Write the C-alpha cells for this entry.
Amino acid sequence: MTFPTRTRFHLLAIAGALMSSTPAALLAQQPEPQYAEEIRGLMATQAITSALDLAEAHDDWALERLIELTEIPAPPFMEEVRGRRFAELLTELGADSVWTDAEGNVIGLRRGRTGARTIGFGGHLDTVFPEGTDVSVRQVGDTLFAPGVGDDTRGLVVVLSVLRALEEAAVETDDDVLFVGVVGEEGLGDLRGMKYLYRDQGLQPDVWIDVDGGGLSRIVSMGLGSVRYRVTFAGPGGHSWGAFGTANPAHAMSRAVRHFQDVADTMTRSGPRTSYNVGRIGGGTSINSVPFETWMEVDMRSESPESLARIEQTFLAAMDRGAEEENELRREGEPLEAIKDKIGDRPSGELPVSTPVVQRALAATGEFGVEGQLARSSTDSNVPIAMGVPAVTIGRGGQGSNGHAPDEFWVNVDAYLAVQRALVIVVAEAGLAGPIS
Ligand SMILES: [Zn+2]
C-alpha cells in the first residue's frame, strides 16, 4: 500500500480503529460515585502525579521499546526469545525478582508494603503470525507498520511503562504487583499461559488487569467463551465403483452437519447470544474414490457457559449420529468412525458491574475525559472471569487497525494516556501505601 500524505494516514488509522470495534458488544456505564472519588483522590497525590508525568515523559522510550519488541518474532508456541528480552527489561526497570514459569510466562514481581494480595498486570507475548513472517517495522510518518505491532506488543510496552513510572516515582503499593508477559493468548495457544497461571501450580493472582485491544474507552469485563473441534470421519476408503457401498466419510459428515444445524438453529435464535460455524472442511482422494477421511473444523461461541455446554453436547451427539447412520447404510467393509478432537476451549463468564476493579477501570477512564464502555470479548481475562476472579482487559492506547493481518499498523496518538490510565487502575487496586511514620 502507498499513501500520499501523513494526514491521510492518520485519518485511515482512526477510521480503521473505529471499524475494528464491535459496537453491539459495548455498554456505556458510569462509575459509582465512591469510586470516582477514590480515583480522583489517588490522582491528586504527589506520588501519582509525578508517576503520571513520568509516564508521559517516557513516551519516546516506549516507542523505541515497541519497535524493538515487535521485531523479535513471537509465533504461537515460540515466544521464548521475545520473553527473554521482556524479562531483561523487567529486571532493568527495577522489578524485585523476575522469572519464567513452566508454561513460559515471564513474570516480574514488584513487592508491596504488606503483600496481602497479589495483583496481576499483563499483556500477551505471542502474535498470530507464523514463523518466518517478516516482522520488521516500517515507519511512515507517525505510523508504524508491522505484524503484531499493536496486538499485543503495544500491550507489553504499556506493562513495562507502568513499571518504569512506578519505580522512578518511587510509588509504593500495599499489595504485590506481578508484571506479566503471558504466552499463548492467540488461536491454538488457547489461553494456555493464563490457564497455567490460574489453574495449575500457578500463582492465581487475586485480581487480573490485562492490556489488549485498542482504544481508551473499552473495558472488557465479560468473557466470550468458545469451544473448537476438529472432527475427522475415517473409514476404509476405496474405488467409487468397485467399492461402492463402503461407508463414506463425506456422506457421514454431511449428515452430521445437517443433524447439528437442525437443533443448533433453534437453540441460537433465543436466549443468550450463541453462535456456531463450520469454518473449514477437507479430505478425500479423488472424485472417483470413496474417501478414507473427511474432516472439518468447527467453532462455537456463547455469552453463557450453560449455552456453550449445551451447543457442544448437541454438536458431539450429531457427529455420532452422522457416523451411525452412514454405518447403517453401509453395504460392505468396516464401519467408519467420527474422531472428535477438541482444539480450543475458552471459558465464558461475566463479572458484576459492581466489582471493584470494574468500577476503578470505569472511574479512571472517566478521569481521562472518556466514557467507559463495558465490553464482551475473548481475551486472557476469560480465564479469571470464568472463575469469578475480578479481572478487566483495558486498551493499549494509540490508534491502530488490521490486527491479525500482515499490514497491521499502530499510530502513536496520545498513547501515553493508556499508560497513565493503566497505572491509576493498577495502583488503585494494589492500594497506595501511606507514608512510613
Ligand atoms: Zn491480543
Remarks:
- The two ends are 61 Å apart (CA to CA).
- The pocket of zinc ion is lined by residues 124, 151-152, 185, 212 (CB under 6 Å).
- Confidence is low (pLDDT under 50) at residues 1-24.
- Residues 305-329 form the longest helix (25 residues).
